Amino acid sequence: MDINEITIIGGYNKNGELEAVKELTVKKGEIFGVVGATGSGKSNLISDIEQLAQGDTLSKRKILINGEVPSVGMRRDPRKRRIAQLSQNMNFLADMTVEEFLLMHAKSRGVDKEGVVDEIINLANNLTGEPIKKDYNLTILSGGQSRSLMVADVAVISDSPIVLIDEIENAGIKKHEALELLAGYGKIVMVITHDPVLALMTDRRVVMKNGGMTEIIETTEEEKKVSAKLNNIDNWMLSMREKIRHGERLSLNDIVIEEL
Ligand SMILES: Nc1ncnc2c1ncn2[C@@H]1O[C@H](COP(=O)(O)OP(=O)(O)OP(=O)(O)O)[C@@H](O)[C@H]1O
């Protein structure tokens, strides 16, 4: 089944009051942000979506797929749910090479595409400053390399049309490019973030307060420009980090940022 949109039907906040946002639909290819203070209920919202809640969680929210209540099979069986989650704490544990893992994953998902391993590694290497090679063991990958590989893997192999991302701001990858990559593969992307680069590249963001969805903010064209400029600063910081990592020295000349 093609998943074209998900709808969140509002429930109750922590005080048991109805949420201000009664209904929210996110479509394929859209990047949607979730913002809010600590403890405001961001993770809870993402977890309602992950579980395809049907009024059976704390918030009493309901999640619809393509406007309909998802089947019991889809709700009970995580393999049928087709929702991928990414967070900055995830790491690979399997003792196998990058190539072995990707081939195994592609096979298990029925992806039989020539050159799929190279495609994923190339995409991943666009997101990290430290290139990944096919014969690297998964367990030696750095945090940034692991996350880059996960993002590229979700984009190309995993057929999960819904991707939930919990704070990847410190994941050590080019986050802007990572989100664009996922959205470009026609995913519904929901991202919890306080990072202006990410929050402002979404199309819309929901503001969480006291466990409830209180407001939906549409990103303006000006905000998107702010995001792009902040992204230049971010990538510049990333390149400085790479220099340090490779034992190089920095000078004041390195601080010249092309016109912001
Ligand atoms: N609608 C709700 N009804 C009842 N309890 C809720 C609701 N939303 C969130 N909670 C509870 O409030 C607590 C904080 O929520 P949550 O962890 O989702 O916040 P958060 O915004 O992700 O916080 P952080 O930024 O610290 O990760 C949790 O114990 C959660 O179960």
From TrEMBL:
PANTHER family membership: OSMOPROTECTANT IMPORT ATP-BINDING PROTEIN OSMV (PTHR43117:SF4)
Protein name per Swiss-Prot or TrEMBL: ABC transporter related
GO molecular function: ATP binding; ATP hydrolysis activity
Pfam families membership: ABC_tran
Keywords in alphabetical order: ATP-binding, Nucleotide-binding, Transport
Domain ABC transporter: 1-236
InterPro entries listed in its UniProt record: AAA+_ATPase, ABC_transporter-like_ATP-bd, P-loop_NTPase
Family according to the record: Belongs to the ABC transporter superfamily.
